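Weekly modeling sync, notes
Attendees: AB, CL, MP (scribe)

Item 1: holo prediction request
CL wants a bound-state model with flavin-adenine dinucleotide before deciding which constructs to order. AB pointed out that an apo prediction alone won't tell us much about the pocket. Agreed to run with the ligand included and paste results into these notes for async review.

Input as submitted:
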Amino acid sequence: MNQSFAPEPDHVTELRRQLSRWVAEKMPREKRREWDRAHTWDRDLFRELAAMGLIGLTIPEDYGGQGEDIYAAAAVIEELCQGGPSMAGPFIHAAFYGGLNISENGSPEQKEALLPKLARGEMFLCYGLSEPNVGGDLPAVETRVRREGDEIVINGAKRWCTGADWSDYIYCLCRSEGEAAERHGNLTFVLVPTDAPGVSMQPLEHANLRYTLSMDVFLDEVRLPESAIVGGPAKWNKGWQMLAGRALDVEKIEITAVTYGLARAALEEAWAYAQERVQFGKPIGKHQAVAHKLVTARTKLAACRHMLYHAAWLAGLGHPCSAETAMAKLYVADTGLEIALACQQVIGAYGLSDAYDIERNVRDLMGMPIVGGSSDMQKNNLARMWRL
Ligand SMILES: Cc1cc2nc3c(=O)[nH]c(=O)nc-3n(C[C@H](O)[C@H](O)[C@H](O)COP(=O)(O)OP(=O)(O)OC[C@H]3O[C@@H](n4cnc5c(N)ncnc54)[C@H](O)[C@@H]3O)c2cc1C
């Protein structure tokens, strides 16, 4: 696709100004460090964020949202990430895992029941895709759902179900009973209430994105009404279309916005440090080796920004953007990590302490080429799209 894109809309510029002030005031470095150590996020702060109406950026006005504005939602994530992932995380659980998926794929009843609460920031969804034996190969999920009269019954285990301990529903990918022509043909998404009988969980320790703990979730004869099928009973065996459709493209934008936001924060910190830290009689930024590192990082960051917002702009217009979102996810994840590692070198020994954000930004960015469809998987998908 050869379309280029226009200057940033004024309302997004204004949103950035507002959020950048809010992040500086409400998410100072000592708080960010505390939240990271405790794997947690601040409920009161999230309520403030929700009161600004930001969750509604993925939700139609008829359901209490602002009307879908993917570009603005990506900018919100980027700005929140200037304070680390601890507000961007819950924002994504409400606006994307919840708002976007239910707006795209929910039944009329599910939209009616969930979207207004999601838009107000009173409800969260988490993703139940990965399993102990299933990572990138999602159509191989082993969690099974069977029909019994007008009920469904789920058995299995989900791994890395981030935020399951505070989310209201798991957006859960299951293998539906019954014969299917091919392996994508008997997958069904179910909205599993996290407090349903038969659901249990235990935490998984991890080094990155510590706005929360991730969870191992066990589903033991979890019995739900058929209306818990995402999209309603008619969407039985239609899970793959939901997973591979527009929601997946937008999901890649959301993860890429986190990556870009964290990489930008890393560069801004290293840039300022290079101007303040004096060695051999001058700021280290005046030593050519350091200046080159930072200039290269800034150039790569600009390329990342273009890829992210070009993909977001296409998605917002409703244009096909599977290739652009996959390229952005691939390039920004790999490059964001490179940028952060270069910035860590510039900050020297302090880059390995928690006196600066860079140590956390590196940990957070290490995961980006893995989560949400690894870089290898993006390359496979692009090779397939381009019929290589
Ligand atoms: C902090 C964190 C939070 C997470 N949150 C969630 C969540 O909320 N919900 C959820 O469902 N999941 C979540 N995940 C899981 C994440 O989405 C998976 O880690 C990701 O999908 C990759 O799966 P895997 O790690 O099992 O890798 P695997 O799929 O086992 O792959 C291992 C390696 O082999 C490579 N590989 C595999 N197959 C191929 C192939 N065909 N061609 C080339 N290379 C290949 C991969 O690129 C990777 O490098 C989370 C993970 C982390 C670390």
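Recorded for review: The chain has a mean pLDDT of 95.
Action items: CL to compare against the apo run; MP to circulate these notes.
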